[in-house]
Amino acid sequence: MATNLTANPSPQTVMHLLSKITDPDPDFRFMALSDLLTVFNAAKPDFLNHDYNTAARTVDHVARALDDQNGEVQNQAIKCLGPLVKKVTPALVGPMMEKLSSLKLKNSVDNSIPSMAIRAVVEALPRPQPGLVPTKDINEAVSNISKVLIPRLLGRATQAGKELPPLLDSEDPNSDSVDVLIEVVRCFGPMLQSFEIEALHNAVIVVLENDKGGSVVKKRAVVAISMLAHYLSDDVLAAFVKRIVGVLNNSPPNAAIRRLYITVLGSMARSIPYRFGCHLSELAPLVLRALSEEELQAQLEEISEGGGAPLEFNEVREAALVALEAFLSSCPTQMIPFTNEAIYSCIRYLKFDPNYALDEDDEMEDEEEEEDEFDDDDEFEAAGGFDDDDDASWKVRRCAAKGLYTIISTRSSGDLLDSGVLYGTVAPALVKRFGEREENVRLEVLSAMALLVRKTGEGMIPDFSLDNAQGEYPSQPPLTRKRRRQSSVAGTSAFALATTSSNLSGTGLTSPTFEKVPPTGPRAELASLTPEIIKPLTKLLGGKLIPTKQACISLLDDLVCVQRGGLDSYFDQLIEPVAEAIKPSSVASTSASLSSAGGSASATATTLRIAALRLTSDIAKNHSSAVLQPYLSKIVAGVVSVAHDRFYKISGEAIQTAEEVIKAITPPRARLTAQKFKGELQKLYEVVINRATANDADAEVRGKAIHALGTLLARTTGPEGSNLLSDDKRKASFVCLLERLKNETTRLAAVRAIDTAAAMSLHTAQFDPQWIRQVVLELAAQLRKSNRALRGSSIMALKHLILSPATRGTLDTATVQDLVSSLVPVVTNNDAQLLGPGLLVLARLVQEFPDTVMTTQLIHSLCGLVPATAPGTVLDSLLVFVTQAGQAGQGKPLMGAFLQDVGTAGDPSVVGKVIGTLLVASGDSAGVTLDSFVHELSVSGDHVRSSLALAVIGEAGLRLGTNFTIPPTLFLQQFSNEYDKVSVSAAVALGRAGAGNIPVYLPIILQAMQKKGGTQYLLLQSIKEILQQAAISSANIGQFSNPIWEQILAASDTEDNKAVCAECIGRMVIIDPKTYMPKLESLLRNQSPMLRAIAVQALRYTLPDDNEAFDAYLRNSLVNMLKTALSDPEMDIRRHAMSTLTSAANNKPELILVNLNQLMPFVMDETVVKPQLIREVQMGPFKHIIDDGLEVRKAAYETLYALMETAFTRVSIIDLYERIVAGLSDDNDIRALCNLMVSKLVYIDPGETIRRLDSIAVGFRKTLSHKLKDNAVKQEIEKQDEANKSVLRLTLLLGDKLNKSALNTTSGAGAGAGAAATGAAGANQVWTSYWEWVNRDFATQLRSVREETKDVSAFGTA
User: Which letter does DSSP use for residue 253 in this model?
Assistant: First the structure.
């Protein structure tokens, strides 16, 4: 039948179609309903609103079609109901519901049709949206639900006065009616009345407890209860909990009822964790009782007597373990008292296998039996595994493994991992179950063990080289997060350091590093357990099941990464099966069914090969070359075999692995044995060059191959590696890099490869001059591109290439001119990312081409740069450049430009350093002399010009050293008691000049220190400068150290001197830790609170310094000193101690991570508000509340923030969030910090953040509800506005990021009741209420915040 439908259908169109719905031919009826559905979807929303008769007839005909004998017609009628509801007048919706709910089927055999129809209607009704005021249509929909549908569900009289059997019939329960209830609660739960919720809840309980109900009905009833729990009042919820307690306490308990109520508890824990947690103290023991040793032993005795394992026993244990996992994940804080019972319950049932072994505790399997077990396992699994009817105990074991996984994920960091419980109790139990015969269970066990290994390695920092070498690159700075203190000693030696020290951490060329295994703690426990882990894994790797092999390889990879090696003793057992897993032939004969037999859809032959390649790469990266060498042939053969694979992920992973192998078989890691593996290196070279030059290769693969080629070239230079690669192959490689540099798609990879090759090139490397000139011009051209990553990589490649000894003398004048013209905009734009390396490039070029480099444009750009330069790496590079320019004879034009165009325009201390450095480097050719600045000082009355002259003289004194003839009195004459700019500049200049000639200057300074007065502070500034420069240049102050120490302590009694005295003490400890570290420790225990406070501040000043010798002393003392300071009775000292711990977390986290559990109690304690420190002060007619503990509390929260940044994995997330939630209701500054922490935890730990949304909402609501007094001043108003804006900004972030999981607002029509009941839907009722309130009452502010943070919101949504 073909029907011509108009573009704008009318009620007449509907009437025409209704006549065909009753046609005897089912095809006509189906097509009529299809056309009707098309009409409803295309018509205007109100086209039936004003035609009541047509709408009513349409409802009647569609309802009649639901009883059609043809199933397709019935389905089409159900599809029509949703669009029909949206087109008819709301007055018809109630009668429609009543008609559908009372529909009696005569012709259909499918009794679920009426329920499906009702669900379609309910889902189509307008529903309330969080944050929006309900409209009239929504209120009418809720009214129809309350007047018609809920009475029908409960069997009460409807609006029409009819009393019909309830849909939730206790005598004949069915799952379809429960699904209707779930849909009602999902769509309209927030607007239902409390008595309606309670009545529905009671009705579902009756269904749940009815013995006539099938398993499907009861499962849906459990879902319904968890949905209704969101809207139960506290009293009703408490009564229901009491009812459950009574049922579960019955003796002997009914197994079916017991399982159902335990399932309900688990579902409710996931749905309403915030409200449910307070009842766990009485509910958790009931669940744990089902998992107790007594009940297990009773069951085993029954089995031993021949009774068999009843299915009910396994189902109850499975439900209890699932509920226990829900408790542990959703309510971790409330479950802390039950930790041990939970662990032992999971372990008890992890080995519950009554049909296989009756007594697992006797350790009865010897070595041979163990091997037989694995062999039998392979045959058993290949045959398809146990049938559920034969043995369902594997489900119990799987749930037990998941429970242990949850315990590890929620209670490891800073908790059970550090206390030794996980490795002492959980890990051995997991290892013993590696031989589990059921694949599903084995995968869960391996996954739990892998998680424990990863948790052990989180936060670890490597600190020493593994290879027997004295460092690959002696001048390389240590791999560290610590900031370096400012150094302005620039000259030939500094330039030499700048030209040779390259941070190669990004190139991957450094030797493998490995952290020393501590004598105790998680790392030590993992190391001792490793042999027991490896033994069963080697057997499993020889099996046939792909999921198991991939899980084993992933666990081995985690072991390698966490221990930075650690598998060298087991290579003879591991390398061969791993290499076989890489090769394509290893999986060719494996049936596809085997890969899915274990239930792991993600484990395939492809993913197994990728995992094996990744493991091989990590093995090569983290193990010493001497250990790897006997197995390299097998490794190389496996890698080469898959490097040309058509799947880009496999070939890309193979290239990355090849790069790591190249590092392992080339110097400096293989200095003495590299020639033995020349054949393997040639094979890897062929693979890499082929992939790098192949145009048909994937772009990602080509990029990785180009990087590997750069690594290969870097490792084959020098006397030890030059013979490993022939000249023609080296030349071909350089040509390839140049070609790829000119290609847009491979340019960035080629730049980084050239950077790698140039950074490691030695003076013996043979670079073709023509190639160098072409590459330099190409790299210089990239500095003008918009791609920031490309610009940054290009400037670093230029720096390494120009500064390399191998390229000296290869550039011509034309190339240098082009390069300088490209670098001038870099200087002009003052881009900090490019400026430092760019100035170093210019410094090298000015040595060879002084006239070409020192152009008018460059000098003009430098004059604009100097006033804008702040102390730091850019200033250091600038000083290197002016030093080289002065030594090259270009000082006069540069000095003239600085004096004329810069002068007093910039910071006198910075400009003075630049001019002073240039003055000394230029010698007599600068055009001015030191006497000129001395004269300027004597005649100038301008403070700025005097300060600049002093800075120049002081810098010159530092650099001239003993050749500096100006006496200290010149600086002392500028001192005054007012601490003006000239006095402070004179003090700093005196210190810098004194650092250059300590024997002459320091005695005079110490002599002047003995005179009390205002100049003492200035002299302390001079001593601080001397000590700072002495620490940098390792100058000898031994004979003056004791007098300095005594003078500093003597001057510390003045308030103004305390801070600078503390910094001076810290400097002395850095210079001579052997002598002064014990003195600092004794100061921390001094009777004087003032000296203890200074000692704590002095310790803080030492932490940003990067000094490995000092760190060696500090490592043994830092934690004890912090504990002493944090436990000091003086509150101000504890505040300083918190700041010191914050500095340690930011600068030297490796020194505190291991013992952080000793420090965290002090931090957590200081974040608690102490009522005894709060007092009321009368100020005139007003009373003010003063919190003396506020400053310490702020410092403690700052420490928490720092630790969250650097040591998050060592802090208990449960304790951390407790304090964050408390801080959301604290002082304004603390609230701001807590807001920042929550905004980070949204991404770091979204799961725990979702669980805390309700408590977060309470704190947010308190902030937004705060009302200022009418007489509030402007500062208070601004502070409150900023606090509100911060809360709203974070509210939007939480909503955008987490509302899909936290609110019942995203389930579509197709989701159905099942999707609505997954535990997260409708959860977080307090947060939902807060979200609606904010969107309603703060709509204007939210719009403003959305506009300001649209980028952040977009990122959060993504």
Answer: P
Interacting residues of 585 by C-beta distance below 8 A, sequence separation 6+: none
Residue carrying structure tokens 């230079």: 717
Residue-level length of the chain: 1358
- Hey, what are 1190's tokens? 């506020």
**What are the structure tokens assigned to 349, written together?**
């049932």
Q: Is pLDDT of 671 > 80?
A: no
pTM summary value: 0.80
pLDDT digits (tens, 9 = 90+) for 1255-1280: 898 899 889 888 887 777 888 888 88
Give the distance between the most distant pair of CA atoms in the chain: 119
**Rounded CA gap, 513 and 1068, in Å?**
32
**Residue 306 identity (one-letter amino acid):** G
CA distance 1131 to 1088: 14
CA distance 790 to 820: 19
Other Cβ atoms within 10 Å of 30 Cβ, number: 22
Rg (C-alpha) for the chain, rounded Å, is 38
Cis geometry, peptide bond prior to residue 668 (ω within 30 degrees of 0) = yes
- The residue behind tokens 């790897």 is 628
Q: Can you read off the two tokens belonging to residue 784?
A: 């003008």
CA atoms within 13 Å, Cβ hemisphere of 30: 11
152, two tokens: 């029908």
Span 1128-1167, pLDDT tens digits = 999 999 999 999 999 999 998 888 887 888 899 999 999 9
Count other Cβ atoms within 10 Å, centred on residue 343. 21
Angle at 643 between CA 639 and CA 649, to 5 degrees: 105
Residue 1064 phi, psi dihedral angles, 5° rounding:
-65, -40
b (16+ CB within 10 A) / e for 1076-1092:
bbeebbebbeeeeeebb
Q: Which helix (H) or strand (E) holds 552?
A: helix 546-563
The residues, ordered by sequence, that sit 6+ positions from 312 with a Cβ below 8 Å of its Cβ are 255, 256, 259
CA 311 vs. chain centroid, Å, equals 43
Output the CA torsion sign for 175, 179, 181, 185: positive
Top-ranked range on mean pLDDT: pick from 30-44, 621-635, 908-922, 1329-1343: 908-922
DSSP characters over 1169-1234: --GGGEEEEEETTEEEEEETTHHHHHHHHHHHHHHHHH-GGGS-HHHHHHHHHHHTTS-HHHHHHH
> DSSP readout, 575-598?
HHHHHHHHSGGGTTTS-HHHHHHT
Q: Exposed, middle or buried, 903 (CB in 10 Å: 0-12/13-18/19+)?
A: middle
As a dihedral over the C-alpha atoms of residue 405, residue 409, residue 410, residue 411, rounded to 10 degrees, the angle is 90
Measure CA 504 to chain center.
Answer: 24
Gap between the Cα atoms of 129 and 1328, Å rounded = 10
Q: Classify 370 as helix, strand or coil.
A: helix
Question: Which is nearest to 158 in space by CA: 146, 167, 170?
Answer: 146
Chain center to CA of 399? 28
Q: Return the closest-CA partner of residue 1085 out of 1121, 1134, 1044.
A: 1121
At 1187, list the tokens: 């919190």
Alpha-carbon gap, residue 1240 to 315, rounded angstroms:
41
Please give the backbone phi and psi of residue 167, each rounded to the nearest 5 degrees, phi first: -65, -40
Phi/psi at 718 (nearest 5 deg)? 85, 170
Task: Retrieve residue 468's tokens.
Answer: 């027997």
Q: In which residue are the tokens 């189509």 written?
A: 124
Measured between alpha carbons, how far is residue 741 from residues 241, 700, 745, 812, 818 in Å?
70, 15, 9, 21, 18
Half-sphere exposure of 1100 (CA within 13 A, CB side): 22
Of 329, 618, 608, which Cα lies nearest the Cα of 1214? 329
Contact predicate 1276/1268, CB 8 Å: yes
> What confidence score (pLDDT) does residue 11 get?
76
**Is-contact 86 45, C-beta < 8 A?**
yes
Single-letter residue type at 1248:
E
